[in-house]
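Person: At home tonight, work slowly through the protein below, taking as long as you need, and write a paragraph about the fold.
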Amino acid sequence: MRSLILFDLHYQDNNPLSRRQLDRIVETEGDFDSVILGGDNAELSSGLQNHKVLFERLKTRFDCPAGFITGNHELWGKLANLSSWRLINEIFPDLGKEYGFVHLEQRNLNVGDVSFVGTYGHFDYSFLRQNKGVSMDELLKGIFVTEGKEITWKDRLNMDWEGKRDEEVCAKLIKAFDERIKTSTGKSISISHTIPRLSLNGWPDSPAQYFMEVYSGSNLIGDVLEAHGGEYHFCGHTHAKARDKIGRTRVINLGSDYNILRYAIFQKNDRKCSVEESEVVIS
């Protein structure tokens, strides 16, 4: 069994660099038994046109089962006059059905004896490090000033969770993720857009990072992996490579970036699982 795993493509059909990245993906050699998209797959656009182009090209090239989760950029509902809840619970599941992609936030993708289990994840401020100069007030506003420069975290401005706090959203999504792992019928390979432990952030410490890293994930995801994780978990979001082990689970942040395509090929032969990683600079 051979699966192609992709994160953080941020596909934009009007961007030549983005189109070249997609060309490189469809040129990937070999046959695959599944394709998995780990969030921030395409930028929100009118009629979800970016997503439609991406999904159509991938399904045309890879004639196999496919699953996806959303990323934070795809949940910026205020930009589309939609709530983030509607996007994650209605709009994207419907789009997935139209193009033959399973939305892993709703159900697992079973391929042979492997179950791909996924969630966007979100953040709950559990990564906040004390005494590093970042306050909850700044985090809730999404604005931080360091070295005379203002940093804005757009999730705080563009997401609309219909009045629910980030902690509530995160707990709800990850509780459902936990249930899907516990009830999976095959060998679980899990996916989250946001990271399960701060050690997966991938960036060196700095005043700016002390602010931005708080939005990179939640310890709740890591707690699920500690209790029920499978052999591998894949994540992204931070655009920086990182590796760690949580319980018995090997966790890989692929670290794909706008001009650096990083992807994984997961393989299972009999009882043995392996991961091959590749990196391509797009110019």
About this structure: The longest strand covers residues 260-269. Helices lie at 16-26, 49-61, 84-99, 136-141, 155-158, 166-182, 207-212, 219-228. The mean pLDDT is 96. The chain has eight helices and 14 strands.
